[in-house]
Amino acid sequence: MHWMLPLMCFFPMVAALGSYLAGRKNKLLRTVLVGASGVVTFLMAFVLLLSRQEAAFTLEGFCGLGLHLKADGFRSLYACVAAFMWMMTGLFAPEYFAHYHNRGRYSFFNLLTLGATLGVFLSDDLYTTFVFFEIMSFTSYTWVAQEETPGAMKAAGTYLAVAVLGGLTTLMGLFMLYHQLGTLSFDGMQAALASYAPGQEGITVATWLVVVGFAAKAGLFPLHIWLPKAHPVAPAPASALLSGILTKSGVFGLIVLCSRLMAGNAAFGNGLLILAAVTMFLGALLALFSVDLKRTLACSSMSQIGFITVGLSMMVLLGEHGSLAAYGSVMHMLNHSLIKLVLFMCAGVIYMNLHKLNLNDIRGFGRKKPFLHIAFLLGALSIACIPPLGSGYNSKSLLHEAILEYIVVLQEHGAPWGIYKALEILFLISGGLTIAYMTKLYICIFWEKHPTRQAEYDARKASMNKLSGTVILLSALVLPFLGAFPGAILSPIGDMSAHFFGQHAPHHAIEYFCEANLIGAAQSIGIGAVVYLGIVRPLLMRKNADGVREYVNVWPEKLDLEEMLYRPLLMKWLPNLTGAVCGFIANIPESKLVQVILPGVIVAVTRFFSELPERFTLLMRRTVLRRSEGHKPVPVGNRFTWHLGQLFNSVSRALNKVLRHPLPTDFEVIFDAAWKTITGGFHRFSISVSFGLLLMCIGLVITCLYLLR
User: Fold this and answer.
1) Tens-place pLDDT, residues 651-669
2) Sign of torsion over alpha carbons 699, 702, 708, 709
3) HSE-CB for 679 with a 13 A CA cutoff
4) What distances in angstroms separate CA 78 from CA 9, 88, 199, 704, one per listed residue?
5) How much is the pTM?
6) What CA–CA distance (Å, rounded) separates 133 from 65?
7) Measuring CA to CA, how many Å separate 556 from each of 289, 308, 552, 553?
8) Three-state secondary structure call for residue 328
9) Do the Cβ atoms of 442 and 363 come closer than 8 Å?
């Protein structure tokens, strides 16, 4: 089966070129080829999943480190999920793009992104992950820019900037990890970490750098800024993939770091937990205030990524006892992917009929449209975690149990646990906010009436063709089965994924519908009802000039993190600071002192200090460390420490004849250890000083060249 791994990654890329060339002559042929490519790729992924076999493929020498692919339980699962979502959106896309321009470009980059995404999920080392991850980031940029409107281009620019900066930071972390561990292989890193002598401080810093790129793609705070802006402007099929799969590629990287490098690291786990908790709550809050359908679903995705990352954080904190956290994380990943596939395709149906997404414009459109109603309702029940049909209930219950499990562990050890109790409350509140904003969408679209266009909406019986309706309904019908039969479907998924997460199967059967889990769900439902009835209806709706109640977004525009911090920092403050520094340098008076004498002194001093460690080392080699030919090697250390130790041992033996408490007589070993410590310190000092002075010299030379222009 190993040959299927590169085939799954590169077949869609080859098909992308073929479909693009075919589309230049026959658009129908292009559509057929794109749809067929998605179906063939899914069938390969499905066969790989059913085989339950581990398969590996290595392309030696690729960019130096080689290309390493592997399929096991979790990786085969998510390759299959990705291929399924691409197949479904590919079948839905022809009707959605019927009146779009640049369909050939979208299809081309869509298949390229499929191949790169499968490469991420099938990768077996961080280098391979990074290569496919960067390809995926650049090819998916065109999705956001598809419309080429000013809003789309700005959102695409934000998406690309976050991807590039995150990728560069991740690359820096990978350099450090490779230097420290000597490998980027998933299993190799874990083995190398066990024998990493200096401790984990350097590893932790490198890991946080790698986290940046993955967190940016996942949509974790504070790198979430692209997500709420990209979805409203991207086509609905692309939004489904951006939300359901591309964010999971970032989560995939976080899983590798949490399970292979940071398992049991409390500092890392707590740091990641803070980001996860903020993302979870802030995403739900932004979704509650939004009045744009796709923006609400995008902010919802941000919140759900927060829930998943809470599970990963608890897995890190619980160490080898984090089975429930791992099971809850992988199940919620799966649930969220399938839920957002359904919800974004439903949003696509609304948009391709009305070309509007504002809740006040689409209000009442779903009335008398049973297929759209059923599909959206199943998705809404699932993400709102309403048992027994809501599949999200099962995964969130396990995440909740993991938080409670860690609280119990802290209580047993007498450690402070109050902050984690606050996290549990925030977890339940965020779940309640999810119920509130999904209730807002559902009632607005399917129960309320449009004040002026309801008759027109009701007359549109056929809101989509049979193929699109079949695709959406089949995707939606998967959800109630996941919700009602978790023991038969979700538990085996957790079992096959446990090894990749570095966990074992739970010691007891998981009781999804136990009293504690149902109480937790009831608490979130109660919070959601209070928020909807007490905040959404009275505060987030107001009467317009005609006396009609409308949805309003009262979220302050000034709280946009991108406009408030990132753009001023990168486009105003940093350029101004650079300009001020350059202006100061340019205004230095031109004189012989500045142009000749001062640069000469600086160069001489820099050269002296840069050569000082080498000269000191050379002096030591010619004197103390000089090798004497013809002499037998000393038993311990060098001749200096050996003879000095012999002298001190002689004195000790003489004093021991009269002293009550004898002195040590192993000074050869003591002086040898001290000498190694001193010379090692000098070596590290010489390296750091030489490198620092070299950089300083380069900077001064550049400055002098500028002054002597």
Assistant:
1) 777 777 766 666 666 767 7
2) negative
3) 14
4) 13, 15, 34, 56
5) 0.78
6) 16
7) 10, 28, 12, 8
8) helix
9) no
